[in-house]
UniProtKB/TrEMBL annotation:
PANTHER family: RRNA METHYLTRANSFERASE 3, RRNA METHYLTRANSFERASE 3, MITOCHONDRIAL. Residues 38-165 form the tRNA/rRNA methyltransferase SpoU type domain. The keyword Nucleotide-binding does not apply. Pfam families: SpoU_methylase. It comes from Labedaea rhizosphaerae. The keyword Hydrolase does not apply. GO terms for molecular function: RNA binding; RNA methyltransferase activity. GO terms for biological process: methylation; RNA processing. SUPFAM superfamilies: alpha/beta knot. Keywords: Methyltransferase, Transferase. This is SpoU rRNA methylase family protein. It comes from the Bacteria.
Length: 171
């Protein structure tokens, strides 16, 4: 043992927010073309951990997937998106930085991605087809997550969580 006592849940709770955040609009994680509902619950939990919002498409199964995957005891900040490309256009026009997690030429490595200093949207694509071209044209910064193994990509929840922590300045 290291000689240090683990902190109790009560002690940990005192260091954190007393309640769920309202929409700060600083960091939004946007899995706009999700394939698996389980990833949405995981991303919702990550958003709570880093103080971000989650933007999801208004598809019939998404609300149920979020409800099933939300293990938090409070309401989280979720933005419902009807048309992902038009929503991204509006966010870009409002001055938000658009970061896409995608394997493209000129992508920044995750380790080199700076902390978000302006309102930022993190766009996550479909796990098989990626970010659609119309949305990719709106991305100001593309980020890639280096991998040593044989896989081409991580699942959307893992990739989104890594980028969220990096942009939040927590790793």
């Amino acid at each position: 043992m290291s000689g240090r006592d683990p902190r109790s849940r009560r002690e940990l709770g005192k260091q954190r927010r007393p309640r769920a955040h309202l929409c700060w609009g600083h960091l939004t994680i946007a899995p706009l073309w999700p394939l698996h509902g389980a990833n949405l619950g995981t991303l919702l939990r990550t958003c709570d951990a880093v103080g971000a919002c989650l933007a999801v498409p208004r598809w019939p199964w998404v609300k149920q997937a979020l409800a099933r995957g939300n293990t938090l005891r409070h309401r989280s900040c979720v933005h419902w998106v009807n048309d992902p490309v038009r929503w991204l256009q509006r966010q870009a026009a409002a001055g938000h930085a658009i970061v896409g997690v995608e394997l493209v030429d000129g992508a920044c490595r995750l380790a080199d991605l700076p902390m978000a200093r302006e309102p930022t949207i993190v766009v996550l694509g479909h796990e098989q087809t990626g970010i659609p071209v119309a949305a990719l044209d709106l991305v100001g910064t593309a980020v890639e997550i280096p991998m040593v193994g044989t896989g081409m990509s991580l699942n959307v929840a893992v990739a989104g969580s890594l980028v969220a922590y990096k942009l939040a300045g927590m790793i």
